[in-house]
Amino acid sequence: MNTFSSAAYARLRRRRVKEKDQKLVIVMGPTGSGKSGLSIELGTYFPSEIINSDKIQLYKGLDITTNKIPVIERLNIPHYLLDEIDPKKQPELTPLQYRLRASSVISGISSRRKLPLLVGGSNSLIYALLSDRFNPDLDPFSGSDPVCSELRYKCCFLWIDVSLPVLNEYLIKRVDDMLDSGMVSELAKFYESEVDELAPNTGLTKAIGVPEFERYFRCASANAHQRDDQVLRGVYDEAVKNIKDNTCQLAKIQMEKIQRLRNAGWGLHRIDGTDTFRAVLDGSKNWSDIWEKQVVNPSIKIVNNFLEE
Ligand code: ATP
Fold first, then answer.
1. CATH number for region 20-309
2. How far apart are the CA of 279 and the centre of ligand 1, in A?
3. For residue range 66-89, what is the model confidence (pLDDT) as tens digits?
4. Closest by Cα among 121, 127, 123, 107 to 23
């Protein structure tokens, strides 16, 4: 081995040893399970900074469609890799690129003596960042490639689990709320001014809502002569139905991926959020008390123990 490669090897080894001591809290769970809310609760309790691991929320734009946590609700807790990438300049951040960027964000957070909190539902990004040996050519969720069970950091995983039928009911209602909050006009602007400048089927264009509404906007922009409002209404209803179906499908797949990581020995702490979601769906006013008792307090306890280890 020459001098250069042994020095480089020693540097790499030092970095890896340092990383292995670096503590990191990860908030996982399917779409809609309350990860962002829990991360803010943790971020106000422990001096921390948040790194996003939702592959669609990485990009600037489509804030309603992608369910980004509004700035005002972030309570001044710094967020990274959220609403950060300009999709016109970088249409898709690969898992390997995410690994490199997120690990340098983690080093920055730890140099400020804060706790890094990784929050988001994209298990492929979580895996790319955390697995000790990441091979971009393998897909650990395919069923045939192995899951690396050795981790790069000292990790504390909080997994918000919600019974799937209950979560589905909530997700369907959430789509209606998103529509009421202006999702269609946000998508209309995206179709008018952005979509043609983006590479098809990459990054932001894959957000649930974009492909589902394509036919609707095509029909809506047909000239008045050809347009039939009844047909348009039918196309709209179909788009909404597809969004609801695809969101529920996404939650199911995300849960299966989490289960796969768990089966491979990733030590996930399961936090059951089902009662909170039932209370929200029943219109019960005490849902936030249940959330605090069953999700926030146990999470704080787990993180406290982890930090004391
Ligand atoms: P996959 O390998 O299937 O892309 P993943 O773990 O990398 O899975 P997921 O977070 O499960 O990533 O996202 C899969 C797909 O779900 C995205 O490509 C997108 O279509 C949709 N999706 C995920 N997050 C969002 C979001 N915040 N808003 C809208 N759509 C989303």
1. 3.40.50.300
2. 27
3. 999 999 999 999 999 999 999 999
4. 107
